[in-house]
Design goal:
Chain A is of the alpha/beta class. Chain A is built from 14 helices and twelve strands. In chain A, helix 8 packs across helix 9. Chain A starts with a helix and ends with a helix. Chain B is mainly alpha-helical and 545 residues long. Chain B starts with a helix and ends with a helix. In chain B, helix 6 crosses helix 15, helix 11 packs antiparallel against helix 14 and helix 13 runs antiparallel to helix 14. Classes of the chains: A alpha/beta (388), B mainly alpha (545).
């Protein structure tokens, strides 16, 4: 247990530890204490086939408590053929999809088109009513909102929508969050400590000592959502000044945030701006890398976006599409996102992995996620200051 | 040398029945041109959604103009350097007593099998400010290498992986031209350089221009490399627009139209440079492969110089890929089925190569034999798709398929046809160029002789012309095959669910930052593509040895 907490302290910022240490410790104790072998076996019999990831955390985090939430066993069965357009990477969701169609529901076939989210959104629009897709599953609320804005989505049933807090789904239930992703500041622990990272994202342009050593990925969707949040919270002019200030700092540009996290770990950068899981994934591969996670407080630097799914207007089998989305919110699927993609589960009773503070412990700004869909002005702004 | 127009006129005069066939062939070639231009109609439809006023405003924005200038600068540099590298290398490997000519030729052509974005990623990994190379030098006190990002890096990478187009086309021309002319010039007391300038240059100019055109259009349409090297070019802006929803894709279409205009401009320049077309000799024979230049003590230094280029362009990606493989980054959350992915890649690439070659036949024939404004427009029309980014062609076909494909599209039955067609639209110029050169090398007198012996035009074509151009057809097919193997964006948009190829596997692994998993399919891709390169060079040897 002590190891777990130490790791927390090293990876997550100091002030974060003060808030989350106790909770993480409790969760871990509960995990070891409650999940006896007998119980695990009993549960597997209950559901018929329990997915392999239940009860085992990633690497050093060991066993986890049986997740809360609604089990797949308590949901109607899936059967038939469903076409999913997935902006989420194949390596991230394949095991879950395979479990659904191969282990759990032999009568289910999932045809998945994997491509970049924007390509798929554009595809859905060009295909119009003749799209073969039933479900659009993608990485952020923005893209989901965009697909809603062209009337390509249809509302989910309340049985499905109600599984997730209102904060993480569309106001008309036309899309729903399936897992969460927090904006963070990865920093190189060999070169600086968590306290060197400002608590306010707006003071980043003052970091002249790190000129040319801060990285971002401005073409990346989450980054645009982050800038959109800054516009909403701080206003247009301060955002413009911030962008200009970062430009003056010679902020290094990368084509995706995994590269930013890697560059920080390599020491090419002192710090960067990425979603939280890029850090965790980098560490999952090389646990000893000098890579830490810091958070800003109550500003755009720590917005909490969601990956999510929408049922499409073009679906030839809307009931199956709705049920499929519901299964993404099952206890099993939420646990999968927690330990396989290092994302935040959105269903009550499923916890993030031990290295991370829980959602409620983050100092998240209070904004409507669907507002993040309006990225056009952010892009104009990014183009205006010459970032894009 | 007989110019195209003269030849055409002379041709028409031979038999009156010919002109009917000629019209038929021209129509067929025209139909191919219309077919491959068809997806571009989407560009107009989508641009139209924006409205004229705002469209004009975007197209004339200073920033848009700046990136066009950037693109032209980059493209010009890449093309010029490719010629400066490709032509001397071709000359060295064909016309001199360079040691190890065969293996050196293979090595010099091989960079063509490396997708430029893989080249870019691995170069950044190797030579980035704090890349592997810096780590190697760190004990010597090197803390940071000069940046390879920007214009220099972009030009370097694209040149390293496209100069073989010039190298290969120039080689083919050097091998097929009549060396007796050169010898004649030498006996007329021209020195070697003078003879080269006056005899060889005009003969290889069309081939160099053809290779340079492929290089220029590739540079213009490449997206991955400028993106990775952080240089603002046209395709990058198209990409950014494409990814900003709202009317983003429409904007991307509008900007792509501008790209098409630029392409037409380049095609016009190329057709000027190409000038007198007939690179064949009346006899239809080819010069000997005897080296005409003895390098003497420069033999080995020259060989070493030749080796330097592939050492850089091949060793860096292979070395970095190997390193990723050994380090084995990646959690292996999925299995990679290498065999089925390879078969998929080879299958679609083979189909695209076959179809592109068939489509290219009438276009190349007409372009080689009926030199008129119309036939050159038809030929050049097939080049336009090559300069339009794959993602735009892909989206155009998604639109056309969904609009007019009805239930066939919905059921996914059009997925493969659309995918193969997208490749044909993009890469048919490679088949057209090679096949056209093949036709030009066949002396007109040969099929005519067959005709006088009582064969029908069709029989004469099959029994005389086709066997003679077969190597060129095969070479064109091999080029299309190679390029299709590497193509990513259109593949991502149009592939049927669950259909993975080697490049989609590389993309998938790269995207989730699992470089260890990217290495294996990337290496297999290089090996399989490398094999088709041997076909290409083997075929090239065919008409000489």
């Amino acid at each position: 247990m002590k190891d777990t907490r130490d790791t927390d302290g090293r990876l997550v910022s100091r002030r974060r530890l003060l808030q989350s240490g106790a909770v993480a410790g409790t969760a871990a104790v509960a995990g070891c204490g409650l999940l006896s072998d007998d119980q695990a076996t009993a549960d597997a019999e209950d559901t018929g086939v329990s997915p392999e990831w239940i009860g085992s955390g990633p690497g050093e985090f060991g066993d986890r408590p049986e997740p809360g939430g609604t089990s797949m066993g308590d949901m109607p069965d899936l059967s038939g053929e469903i076409t999913v357009y997935s902006g989420r990477g194949e390596s991230l969701v394949k095991d879950l999809f395979d479990y659904l169609q191969e282990t759990r529901y032999p009568n289910l076939t999932i045809d998945t088109n994997f491509a970049p989210a924007a390509d798929l959104a554009a595809t859905i629009r060009e295909e119009g009513g003749n799209s073969p897709a039933d479900v659009f599953f993608t990485v952020n609320a923005g893209t989901l909102g965009q697909v809603k804005s062209i009337d390509a989505t249809q509302a989910l049933t309340s049985e499905t929508a109600s599984l997730v807090d209102e904060a993480y789904r569309d106001s008309d239930d036309e899309w729903i969050g399936t897992s969460g992703r927090a904006r963070t500041v990865p920093y190189n622990t060999d070169r600086l400590s968590a306290s060197d990272v400002p608590e306010s994202i707006m003071s980043f342009p003052d970091l002249s000592q790190y000129e040319g050593e801060i990285g971002w990925a401005p073409t990346y969707g989450s980054f645009k959502a982050f800038i959109t949040a800054m516009r909403i919270i701080e206003g247009e002019d301060p955002t413009r000044q911030w962008l200009q200030g970062m430009q003056d700092l010679n902020t290094q540009e990368y084509s995706d945030e995994a590269q930013v996290a890697r560059a920080v770990a390599d020491g090419e950068l002192a710090m960067g701006l990425t979603n939280h899981y890029y850090i965790q994934r980098e560490l999952a591969v090389n646990p000893n890398e000098p890579l830490g996670t810091a958070f800003t407080r109550n500003d755009a630097g720590t917005i909490f976006n969601v990956a999510g799914a929408a049922r499409l207007q073009s679906s030839g089998n809307p009931e199956l599409a709705d049920l499929f989305v519901r299964h993404l919110l099952s206890a099993e699927a939420q646990e999968y996102f927690a330990i396989r993609t290092f994302e935040y589960p959105l269903v009550d009773g499923v916890n993030p992995v031990g290295r991370l503070p829980s959602v409620t412990e983050l100092s998240v700004p209070d904004i409507d996620l669907s507002q993040l869909a309006d990225q056009a002005q952010s892009e104009d702004l990014l183009e205006e200051v010459g970032v894009l | 040398m007989v110019t195209g127009t003269d030849a055409a006129t002379a041709d028409e005069g031979v038999t009156s029945g010919r002109s009917g066939r000629s019209v038929g062939l021209t129509l067929l070639a025209g139909a191919v041109a219309v077919l491959v231009l068809l997806p571009l109609t989407w560009l107009f439809i989508a641009s139209n959604r924006i409205g004229f006023a705002s469209g004009l405003e975007i197209v004339t924005q200073p920033r848009t103009i700046q990136v066009v200038v950037n693109s032209i600068v980059m493209m010009t540099a890449v093309t010029a350097i490719s010629i400066l590298i490709g032509v001397p290398l071709a000359y060295l490997t064909v016309r001199t007593d360079l040691p190890l000519r065969r293996p050196l030729t293979v090595l010099l052509a091989l960079p063509l099998v490396v997708p430029s974005y893989i080249g870019a990623i691995t170069f950044v990994s190797a030579f980035g400010p704090r890349g592997e190379f810096q780590e190697l030098l760190a004990p010597l006190g090197v803390e940071q290498l000069p940046s390879i990002y920007g214009l220099t890096g972009t030009v370097m990478i694209i040149t390293l992986y496209t100069y073989p187009y010039v190298f290969l086309t120039t080689r083919a021309a050097l091998k097929s031209i009549d060396t007796t002319l050169f010898d004649a010039a030498r006996t007329l007391r021209h020195d070697r350089w003078e003879a080269f300038k006056r005899v060889t240059v005009p003969q290889i100019k069309p081939a160099v221009a053809a290779g340079a055109l492929l290089v220029a259009l590739y540079a213009l349409s490449d997206f991955g490399t400028p993106q990775i090297m952080r240089y603002d070019v046209f395709t990058r802006v198209i990409y950014v627009e494409f990814h900003s929803f709202g009317n983003g894709p429409d904007m991307a279409a509008l900007l792509s139209l501008k790209l098409v205009v630029l392409t037409v401009f380049i095609l016009a320049i190329e057709s000027r440079v190409r000038g007198g077309d007939n690179i064949g000799t009346e006899g239809g024979y080819v010069g000997g492969s005897d080296p005409s230049l003895h390098l003497g003590k420069w033999r080995w230094p020259a060989a070493l110089a030749c080796l330097a280029l592939p050492a850089l362009s091949l060793a860096v990606p292979v070395g970095i890929l190997r390193m990723w493989l050994v380090r084995g980054t990646g959690t292996g959350a999925y299995n990679i089925d290498l065999v089925s992915m390879s078969l998929n890649s080879v299958g679609v690439s083979g189909a695209a190569a076959l179809l592109a070659t068939l489509f290219a036949l009438p276009v190349a024939y007409v372009a080689a034999h009926r030199s008129s404004r119309l036939t050159s427009v038809v030929e050049q029309a097939t080049y336009v798709g090559y300069a339009v980014p794959g993602v735009v062609i892909g989206l155009a076909l998604v639109f056309l398929g969904a609009q007019y494909g009805g239930v066939l599209y919905r059921q996914g039955l059009l997925a493969f046809p659309l995918l193969i067609f997208a490749y044909v639209v993009r890469f048919i110029p490679q088949a057209v160029g090679s096949t056209r050169a093949g036709f030009l090398q066949v002396s007109r007198s040969l099929p005519e002789a067959a005709r006088t012996l009582g064969q029908s035009p069709g029989q004469a074509f099959r029994s005389v012309t086709l066997p003679l151009v077969a190597p060129s057809l095969l070479a064109g097919a091999a080029l299309v095959f190679l390029t299709t193997m590497k193509e990513l964006p259109a593949t991502l948009l149009l592939r049927p669910p669950g259909f993975n190829t080697l490049v989609t596997a590389v993309w998938r692994a790269e995207r989730s930052a699992e470089f260890g998993l990217a290495a294996i399919p990337a290496i297999v891709l290089l090996v399989v593509s490398g094999l088709s390169m041997f076909v290409l060079l083997k075929v090239e040897g065919y008409d000489v040895e």
